[in-house]
Design a protein that fits this description.
Blueprint: H1 2-22, E1 31-37, E2 48-52, E3 55-69, E4 72-83, E5 91-102, E6 106-117, E7 120-130, E8 133-134, E9 139-150, E10 158-168
Antiparallel strand pairs: 1-3, 1-10, 2-3, 3-4, 4-5, 5-6, 6-7, 7-9, 8-9, 9-10
């Protein structure tokens, strides 16, 4: 009888834990707002700051999304980058895509990123994977690796390392 009681408690505990995971921050109908640190070299919607050869460059941006089903968010982002180098122009960046949370905390995403610069635009397809470390009910830290596939002739792909901070509500 004691073994049966222990087994029932274990099953109940696992079921309660699984139920808690499915009603998590990534449930259908929830929203996410995210800010990342990263490089501005690929039309970023992230925060960055750099100084090289006497020139200073910075970027600012954010992304938001809506979970259309459990663990799948449709996302969009905007960003702006500027620097004091007279040979480079300001950049306006937009991003649209989707992000799926495997097991509720391993986000993988794909998106289209476009950057408008003086005299034209540059575009990428981005592939991203990482881990969402939830600090509480509404906040996560999301380290990630991203690969940007250039869509223009002669444009090379680029890897990025990001650290994201996300709010879920």
């Amino acid at each position: 009888m004691k073994k049966l009681l222990v087994a029932a408690m274990m099953v109940f505990g696992l079921a309660a834990n699984a139920q808690e995971t499915t009603s998590s921050q990534t449930a259908q109908g929830k929203f996410v707002i995210e800010a990342n640190t990263g490089s501005a070299t690929t039309g970023s919607t992230a925060f960055s700051f750099s100084s090289q050869d006497g020139y200073t460059a910075w970027s600012i941006g954010a992304e938001g999304g809506y979970f259309v089903i459990d663990d799948l968010a449709v996302k969009a982002g905007l960003g702006f980058a500027s620097n004091d180098n007279p040979f480079e122009s300001d950049q306006f960046t937009y991003k649209i895509g989707a992000e799926y949370y495997i097991l509720g905390n391993i986000p993988v995403g794909v998106d289209f990123t476009g950057t408008s610069v003086t005299g034209g635009s540059v575009n990428w397809i981005g592939l991203q994977g990482g881990y969402a470390y939830f600090l509480g009910e509404n906040v996560s830290i999301k380290p990630a690796v991203r690969y940007n596939i250039g869509l223009e002739d002669g444009q090379k792909g680029q890897f990025q390392g990001l650290i994201g901070f996300a709010l879920y509500f």
